[in-house]
Amino acid sequence: MLLLQIILFCLLYISMVKYAAGNSGLNCLYFYPEEYIEEAQKRGIADKEATMKKGKHFMIPFCVIILIALILIISVWNHVTDFKTAYIQAVIFLVIVNWFDGIVIDQLWVGHSKLWMIEGMEGVPYTKPWGYMIKRRILASIMYLGVAVIVAAIVVLIGKF
Questions:
Q1: Measured between alpha carbons, how far is 49 from 51 in angstroms, rounded to an integer?
Q2: 119: alpha, beta or left, given left = phi > 0 and alpha = psi -120 to 50?
Q3: Taking Cα atoms as reference points, which of 69, 71, 68 lies closest to residue 87?
Q4: How is residue 99 annotated by DSSP?
C-alpha cells in the first residue's frame, strides 16, 4: 500500500509541475538556475522580477497542496496517530519525492524534453550536472528530516480529533 501511495504522491507532484509548465518551459522559468533567468532577461525573453513573482505564486500553493496531501495520506488514509510512525512515513515520502524531483523531473524530463527548451536560449545550459543535483538532494533530504517533524506533529494533532 505504501508503494502505491508513494507513486500517487509522485504523480500528484509531477502533474502539478506539468500543469504549471503547460506547453512551454517559459511558463516555469522560475524553476531554472538563476544564471539562466538572468541570461533570459539580458536576451529580452523574460523579466527576472516578474519571473520570480510568478514562481512565488506557484510555489506557495504547490507546497501547501503537497504538504496537505502528505498529511492526509498519513493521517486519514493510513490511520496513523502516533508520532514515530507519522515521522517515519513523512520522511519516506519527503525523501523519495525529493529524489524523484531531482532524478526523474530535473535530470531526465527537463534535461531531455523539448518542452523545457526555451526558444532564444539555445546554447545556455539549463540543467545542473549530476554531481550538483546529488549534493543538493542530499542537503534537501537532511532538511526534510526537520520538515517531517512538523508533518508528524500535525498528523498526531489530527489523530486526537
A1: 5
A2: beta
A3: 71
A4: H
| Closest-CA residue to 36 (of 24, 25, 23) | 25
Question: In whole angstroms, what separates CA 50 from the centre of its chain?
Answer: 21
Query: Phi, psi at residue 95, to the nearest 5°?
Result: -70, -40
3-state helix, strand, coil in the chain (%, to 5): 80, 0, 20
Q: How far apart (Å, rounded) are the C-alpha atoms in residues 15 and 8? A: 10
Cβ atoms of 67 and 47 within 8 Å: the answer is no
Q: Kindly give the confidence (pLDDT) of every residue in the chain, 161 residues in length, as a single tens digit, with 9 standing for 90 and above.
A: 999 999 999 999 999 999 999 999 999 999 999 999 999 999 999 999 999 999 999 999 999 999 999 999 999 999 999 999 999 999 999 999 999 999 999 999 999 999 999 999 999 998 999 999 999 999 999 999 999 999 999 999 999 98
Torsion, Cα 120 37 143 128, to 10 degrees, reads: 40
Residue type, 117: M
How far apart (Å, rounded) are the C-alpha atoms in residues 66 and 29?
Answer: 21
Please tell me what DSSP assigns to residue 43: T
Q: Which of 47, 53, 30, 26 is nearest to 121 (CA)?
A: 26
